[in-house]
Amino acid sequence: MVEGDTALADIVRSSHDAIVGGTLDGVVTTWNRAAEGLYGYRAEEIIGRRAETLYPSECRAREAVVLRRLARGEQLDQYVTERIRRDGSTVLVRLSVSPVADKAGTIVGVAAISRGVSAAAGDSRTQGVLPARTSHDLRTPLQAVIGFTGTLLLRLPGPLNDEQARQLTLVEESARQLLSMINEMSRPGEG
Predict the structure, then answer these.
(1) Residue 77: what pLDDT?
(2) What is the CATH number of the domain that holds 38?
(3) Rounded CA separation 179/113 (Å)
């Protein structure tokens, strides 16, 4: 079993995807080299800190819901969201999160595998730059959609069935992805 554990550790360490482990209350416990590259934090700077350090403020409520669902052992679909890098910039990532169970089957933590979306889809900065006014006019309603969808997903106005929650999650993910694309297109390309 020790050999398998060592091989698994080597795979995680060598992966091109950012792999982050955490506790059920959101404290980072493991951090691979790809996570360092994607988010800019060295392992010793982030391990022991709350993962919400990486979350934009508008994502924190949603990520708390994700953590609660994982703690119940739910398997979640991949989703696209934003994260904050060490330098304060944001990065759009495709995230796959899973509950981590011990040998007895008890959920003891979470694992997140992420990859920058722009790295997988090509650099959108080469596609032109949106004028500031257009960028603002597109961002404002999208931020409202994201905010209202998040409120509904938190079930503040009332209960949702599973299908409604799934559909709202898709709406929120799509709006976030579009918002990120607008943000990228609003920045001038770097020569």
Answers:
(1) 78
(2) 3.30.450.20
(3) 22
Closest CA to 95 of 122, 69, 71, 66: 66
The domain containing residue 176 runs over which residues?
A: 123-191
Confidence grade of residue 47 (pLDDT, cut at 50, 70, 90) = very high
Closest CA to 98 of 117, 113, 116, 79: 113
DSSP code of residue 49: S
Alpha carbons 139 and 135: distance in angstroms, whole number: 6
Give tens-digit pLDDT for 74-129. Answer: 888 788 888 999 999 988 888 899 999 999 999 999 999 999 875 434 444 334 55
pLDDT in tens, 150-170: 888 888 888 999 889 888 888
Distances (CA, A) of 104 to 3, 22, 69, 107, 108: 21, 19, 19, 9, 10
Quick one: 68 and 98 in the same domain? yes
Residues whose CB falls within 8 Å of the CB of residue 102, separated by 6 or more in sequence, listed in order: 108
Nearest to 83 by CA among 105, 110, 112, 108: 112
